[in-house]
Amino acid sequence: MSTKKIAYSILDLAIVSKGSTLKETFDHSLALAQAAEAAGYKRFWLAEHHNSDAIGSSATSILIGKIAEGTNHIRVGSGGIMLPNHSPLIVAEQFGTLGILYPNRIDLGLGRAPGTDQATATAIRSDFYQAAMSFPDEIAKIQQYFSLENAKEKVRANVAEGVQVPLYILGSSTDSAHLAAKKGLPYAFASHFATAQLISALEIYHKEFQPSEALDKPYTLAGVNIIVADTDEEAERISTSLYKMIIGLLTGKRDYMQAPVEMTPDIRELRQHPSVQQMLKYSFIGSKAKVKKEIKAFIDTTQVDELIAVTNIFDGEDRIKSYRLFAEIMAELNDEKPE
């Protein structure tokens, strides 16, 4: 049983609902971040994705700037920047600039995947595969650009040198656990969609962790799908949008986020498909009482330090309400912990 207080944060994909414009989507992300700040969330991260009608967070660093500008103290960052898509120098310059504009508020989460399909990954960077293979070295370059010592080097990111922007390793397999442990960096696992290796990855990270200048002991974050409403039935109805989106992803029929419908036998049947069940294993959908019980069990099992809630639903107000209710759940669970 976990006795520590658990931080809670948000991962946003700037989900584009059918009938909404991208401008409305970005404005909603800001409104959500402002509500999250008021509700006690620790951080608001944006994920990098490309070539998807339903996801607006492709120019991730620009959206991070918008969110940071419109909030006061919540941490804002990337969950994550897909590093093989980018030059480490450019990433250091972008996030160094953000760190200067919004001091002690910017996080740089780094992932190895492309955040898109293979054809788009190649369009982004023709040598993507080689870049992915050199992920550990590319992270080391970013660390070097942020160091004060880099002022003596021929290639510099002057806007990054000495700026406090903590790095996080993102992952969806055990490979990333070994890397995060070796580098002594905090580790965020994408268990909101990649569920199979969560427990193994956390065990590896804790077992192999080497203290670093960044971190003296392991720190873990886990993604969870959260939909909270006044009743179990209402949450289930709202969740039909998420299930339709996941089924679209698995069948290659990508589209905007669809409006919810009453839970039908067809959707119930699709929900039981092994691929859907596997992808959404760590999804907590229901009333406050139901989700609180399930989240408590998840925390006790994983012993993570922080939860990153992902709430991909159609209606903006429903989404903000779900996040507010989840913040209440987390505050109640933390109040039950001994001081």
Automatic annotation (TrEMBL):
<protein>
    <recommendedName>
        <fullName>Luciferase-like monooxygenase</fullName>
    </recommendedName>
</protein>
<dbReference type="InterPro" id="IPR019949">
    <property type="entry name" value="CmoO-like"/>
</dbReference>
<dbReference type="InterPro" id="IPR036661">
    <property type="entry name" value="Luciferase-like_sf"/>
</dbReference>
<dbReference type="InterPro" id="IPR050766">
    <property type="entry name" value="Bact_Lucif_Oxidored"/>
</dbReference>
<dbReference type="Pfam" id="PF00296">
    <property type="entry name" value="Bac_luciferase"/>
</dbReference>
<dbReference type="GO" id="GO:0005829">
    <property type="term" value="C:cytosol"/>
</dbReference>
<feature type="domain" description="Luciferase-like">
    <location>
        <begin position="18"/>
        <end position="270"/>
    </location>
</feature>
<comment type="similarity">
    <text>To bacterial alkanal monooxygenase alpha and beta chains.</text>
</comment>
<dbReference type="InterPro" id="IPR011251">
    <property type="entry name" value="Luciferase-like_dom"/>
</dbReference>
<dbReference type="GO" id="GO:0016705">
    <property type="term" value="F:oxidoreductase activity, acting on paired donors, with incorporation or reduction of molecular oxygen"/>
</dbReference>
